[in-house]
């Protein structure tokens, strides 16, 4: 993607999408050398927001000569950042996932390669090696300093399963279908999922990978070629589960919020939930929740039910403006990577981290249980870093089509492949 195409895509939204927080019209406006402007998703309802804001307050007490000015956005952060970058008034540091638009940032100069700072600031030993690998682009550039990670297992409400006469968490196709029918007979939804948004996209990708090895999955999601035998079998498996009533009613119109509400209120028995969502499960539901993987079909290429794991959640990106304030950026990042600061996100917010820590999420039993799954599940590929940015939204639209009852496997495949041709 060209620099012009990336950065001008949202220029018309500059007036329509204001920056939240205590900043000016554009991120870098009027920020002197002693003010570090941080553009972040923490400060909304995102898990860890309260801990982050408290940590910033602690940073101010320890560094009275420096001010961190937070500019807060939710899902529109990438669009707003690109608008401010176009005006050369972007924030100094950006805290956002590696996903969709952000995949191209380092390549087009919207952010810088942070590898030169990694050892100079003594941070390499703090970050897990796998996280560094996932954040390194094909040209060997480290896009950002990894911070948040996630385990993404499947949560099962064992009380609802038991009430339906299901004595164990399903691990196979047949067990899942039997459980879904039993749950429906008792008035409970089986697998709830936001078929209209990213949660549905992830579960569809996970199900398709039942018959795909990691390299085959990377090929499919980077090229849009779902014609291999494994991809076709995975799509057929998904359609078979959908038509057997495994997914919640009208899943194609549900969102992530709908999914969380259905599970957290005990109306649905199963959800595929990242650890930040598991941390929000109410205690009354959590004590009857077991975490595991998504059930396998006969002939699957995996040895265990599948789950997703990734280190590509929120990281610290440095902008071109930030390179003019490296002393301030270094102080801030050293503080954020300190063991006591990292531990707070684990113990207070239940976040999984891409950073070494001995802290335990004891207040968040489901997060801790997900972290202990180990080889009881088989990891499959998270498609986020492989899907071309311009195909991402069309792929979510295709996901809704896939969850629509009556859509054939051939039509699902066509919709997925068409998402790449639209890009």
TrEMBL record:
Gene3D superfamilies: Periplasmic binding protein-like II. InterPro entries: Bact_solute-bd_prot1 (IPR050490), SBP (IPR006059), TAT_signal (IPR006311). It comes from the Bacteria. Residues 1-27 form the signal peptide. Pfam families: SBP_bac_1. Keywords: Signal. This is ABC transporter substrate-binding protein. It comes from Streptomyces tremellae.
């Amino acid at each position: 993607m060209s620099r012009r195409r990336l950065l001008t895509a949202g220029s018309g939204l500059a007036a329509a999408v204001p920056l939240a927080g205590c900043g000016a019209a554009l991120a870098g406006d009027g920020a002197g050398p002693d003010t570090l402007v941080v553009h972040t998703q923490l400060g909304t309802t995102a898990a860890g927001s309260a801990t982050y804001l408290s940590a910033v307050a602690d940073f101010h007490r320890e560094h009275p000569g420096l001010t961190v000015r937070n500019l807060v956005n939710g899902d529109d952060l990438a669009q707003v950042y690109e608008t401010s970058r176009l005006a050369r008034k972007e924030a100094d540091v950006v805290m956002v996932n590696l996903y969709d638009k952000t995949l191209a940032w380092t390549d087009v100069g919207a952010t810088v390669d942070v590898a030169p700072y990694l050892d100079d600031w003594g941070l390499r030993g703090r970050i897990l090696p796998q996280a560094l690998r996932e954040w390194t682009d094909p040209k060997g550039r480290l896009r950002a300093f990894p911070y948040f990670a996630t385990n993404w297992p499947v949560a099962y409400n064992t009380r609802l399963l038991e009430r339906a006469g299901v004595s164990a968490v399903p691990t196979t196709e047949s067990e899942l279908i039997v459980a879904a029918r039993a749950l429906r007979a008792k008035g409970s939804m089986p697998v709830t999922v936001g078929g209209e948004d990213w949660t549905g996209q992830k579960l569809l990708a996970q199900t398709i990978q039942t018959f795909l090895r990691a390299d085959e999955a990377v090929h499919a999601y980077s090229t849009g070629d779902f014609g291999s035998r494994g991809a076709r079998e995975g799509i057929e498996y998904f359609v078979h589960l959908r038509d057997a009533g495994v997914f919640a009613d009208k899943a194609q119109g549900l969102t992530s919020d709908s999914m969380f509400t259905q599970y957290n209120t005990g109306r649905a028995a199963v959800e595929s939930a990242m650890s930040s969502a598991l941390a929000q499960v109410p205690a009354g539901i959590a004590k009857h929740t077991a975490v595991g993987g998504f059930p396998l079909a006969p002939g699957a290429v995996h040895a265990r039910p599948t789950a997703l794991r990734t280190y590509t959640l929120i990281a610290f990106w440095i902008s071109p403006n930030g390179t003019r304030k490296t002393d301030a950026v270094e102080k801030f990042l050293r503080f954020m990577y300190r063991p006591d600061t990292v531990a707070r996100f684990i113990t207070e917010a239940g976040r999984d981290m891409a950073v070494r820590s001995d802290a335990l999420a004891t207040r968040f039993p489901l997060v801790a249980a997900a972290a202990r799954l180990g080889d009881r599940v088989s990891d499959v590929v998270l498609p986020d870093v492989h899907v071309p940015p311009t195909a991402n939204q069309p792929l979510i639209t295709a996901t809704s089509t896939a969850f629509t009852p009556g859509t054939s496997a051939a039509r699902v495949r066509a919709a997925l492949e068409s998402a790449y041709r639209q890009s």
